[in-house]
Amino acid sequence: MSTAVFFGLRALSQTLTTQEALSGVFGSISLATWIFLLVPQLILNYKTGSADGISLAFLFVWLIGDITNLSGAVWADLVPTVIALAIYFCIADFVLISQCLYYNHINSRSRRQQSVVSTTSEEEPLLTRRRSSDTIGLPGSHRRRSSARSGRRDSLSKILEEDDSPNANPWLRNTLSILAVIAVGTAGWAIAWHSGVWVPTIDDGDVPETIQAAVGAKLLGYASAVCYLGARIPQIVKNYRDKSCEGLALLFFLLSLMGNATYGASILSHSIERDYLNTNLPWLIGSLGTMVEDAIIFVQFRMYASKPTSSSAVE
């Protein structure tokens, strides 16, 4: 963190205005945030072996938004970094969706098999069940095996819970993760500035003709904004119906909030000229608008947080 601050202060001491530096820093932090965005949810799904908590409709609509965003970036002939990031978004979406479909398929097949086994055991004659228990072992051995299996499941749950909160509450761990992403983004911008990879765009109040002419790209930008705004609605509805946010990575939505906030801040820090804001309006709507929906999901995390029962408190 100190290294990032050092680079940042040193960069500001050179021929770079505060407005240009802030725009570059916010944009770099937003870039780092989007790169790490899906990692927490991928890890949580892998640890639990389930994707029941996340809405597939949310992911598919988000994928459509990323595809339209990529199409608009290519059409408008934006810088290669923006296009590469848009391609990365689409690939990451496919990875997360594939993981969710895989776990949903595996778990649904497992539930069907358990249902068949339970139905067969209920229809099995009592005498046959007694004989099978006699051949297997002493009376009560089946109960002991069942309790052992449930004990293993409880142990697995405890291990996962311990992994999720190691000597610190989740909010503290997530805060440290966010600070680390901010440090990476700031250091990345400073290094790019000193090496000459990043050069501030001079704002003369005019919008380039190539951007003005890309009306179709702007329409695709609005389409992606609508998709981003609508994507979270299925997730909010699912959380409300289930009265639970179990299976969702809180850090995933925290990073989303920070990514959208810094992206909007990078645009507004660069210029507040009317033509410039009008050109970037679709992306401003998509980024700042979804922050409101992320706030709703945070409220749901708080509302549906599991509270310790009296029995568990006694234990």
From TrEMBL:
Keyword Membrane tagged: yes
UniProt keyword annotation of Lipid metabolism present: no
Entries under Pfam families matching the protein: PQ-loop (PF04193)
The entry's keywords: Membrane, Transmembrane, Transmembrane helix
One GO term (biological process): vacuolar transmembrane transport
InterPro entries documented for this protein: LAAT-1 (IPR051415), PQ-loop_rpt (IPR006603)
Location of this chain's protein in the cell: Membrane
GO cellular component, one term: lytic vacuole membrane
Gene Ontology molecular-function annotations: basic amino acid transmembrane transporter activity
Catalytic reactions of this protein: L-histidine(out) + L-arginine(in) = L-histidine(in) + L-arginine(out)
Predominant subcellular localization, coarse grouping: membrane
Membrane topology: Multi-pass membrane protein
Region annotated Disordered, chain positions: 132-153
Transmembrane regions listed in the UniProt entry: 23-44, 56-76, 82-103, 176-199, 211-229, 250-269, 281-301
Stated family: Belongs to the laat-1 family.
The protein's name in its UniProt record: PQ-loop-domain-containing protein
